Amino acid sequence: MKSLKKLQSKDFTWPVLKALNDLYEKKKSTAKIQQVDYIRYLMTQTDLIAQKKGNSNVLVAGEGYEEYYEANFQSAYQYYYNFLNKVGIRPDGGKNFTEEDIRTLMVIYESRNELRGNLANIEDFSGKIFDYAGSKYLKFKDSVRNAVLKILEIDAFPQTSKDLQYRLVVDYPTPKAIILCENKSFLKQPWNAKELEVKLWHVGGNNIAILDDNDEMELAYPIYYSCDWDFHGLEIFQRIKSKLKNRDVEIKILTPPFPHQYLPSDSFKHNSRWNYKVPFSGLDKKVFSSKEQEIITKLIKEDLWIEEETNVLKDMYYYNVI
Questions:
Q1: Read out DSSP for 8-57?
Q2: Does residue 285 sit in the same domain as residue 158?
């Protein structure tokens, strides 16, 4: 399938997606979604959705809705619906998952054996895996917590934590390569592994020590690193490259294809900054090719960065491999 990009609004919780699908399949919905900003926009600014005449609690699909739904929501809904069914979670409108919740549940499913064998307490697990929501998320989000327990086939989280250096993976039985990812975004798109015939590993930040435990057979494949092109991401790549070099293993960084989607370094919730007190921000030029150095120099000079998630992994992989 094509890369399934995240929907653009945080309004797209599972109940909203389910209601939009009902409007597509049944031409109506009784779901209580009329106060959702995006739904209100469709009702007031377009003719795609309207209240049923004589019953304002029912929404009906208008002219053009079918084409609109197919273009914007059908692929996402069907993929998430199939996943929830596969893991035994009833995909009804009562499951108050956000889209990010569902994508994170996909990562948990792919890494369920690793996570179950090295299980953290609920706060540590939540803070590590649901990093977008924090350590208390699973305690108070019953539907998500119950889904995690079901996927991991456990009754409860332990009271104490083990070492958190577990490996989040999306496996492929006969991989052509391994892609290490600084962030979890590409692991939340597990179809990437199947399409590219690769394994995806989450290796970033303080999580690189997991590379010490990989056997030689796992490290025999071509290895690539996908990351944010900012100081932190590139510095992590340097550390990984040094660690693997000690084991006579080569790794290449995945260069984003043109045109690059630049962001200012002081963009929202971005904490990495270039170091202007030392040349090349203190990075080791020898680690990077001339083309890579050229991109980094521009980023430093103009105080920019390139977010990993703004790239399409398939395009970036083939851009670097072929």
A1: S-TT-BHHHHHHHHHHHHTSEE--S-TTSHHHHHHHHH-SSEEEETTEEE
A2: no
> How far is the C-alpha of 189 from the C-alpha of 254, rounded, in Å?
17
Asked if the bond preceding 259 is cis, omega within 30° of 0, the reply is yes
pLDDT at 159 (0 to 100):
80
Sheet of 55-61, strand order: 28-29, 55-61, 49-52
Q: Which of 27-31, 94-98, 189-193, 214-218 has the lowest mean pLDDT?
A: 214-218
pLDDT for 4 beyond 50? no
How many angstroms separate the Cα of 236 from the Cα of each of 74, 100, 124?
38, 25, 23
pLDDT, residue 2, reads 40
pLDDT of residue 6: 46
Residues 79 and 125 in one domain: no
| Token pair for 187 | 């692991």
> In this predicted structure, what is the pLDDT of residue 124?
87
Instruction: Spell out the residues 6+ positions from residue 162 whose beta carbon is closer than 8 angstroms to its own.
Output: 118, 119, 120
Could you tell me what percent of the chain has a pLDDT over 70?
93
122-129 vs 99-110: helix axis angle to the nearest 10?
110
For 138-161, what is each residue's pLDDT tens digit?
999 999 999 999 999 999 998 865
Question: How many separate domains does the chain show?
Answer: 3
Domain that holds residue 73: 1-96
283: tokens are 């990075």
124 and 91 together in one domain: no
Whole-structure pTM value: 0.76
Indicate whether 85 and 129 sit together in one domain. no
Whether residues 286 and 249 fall in one domain? yes
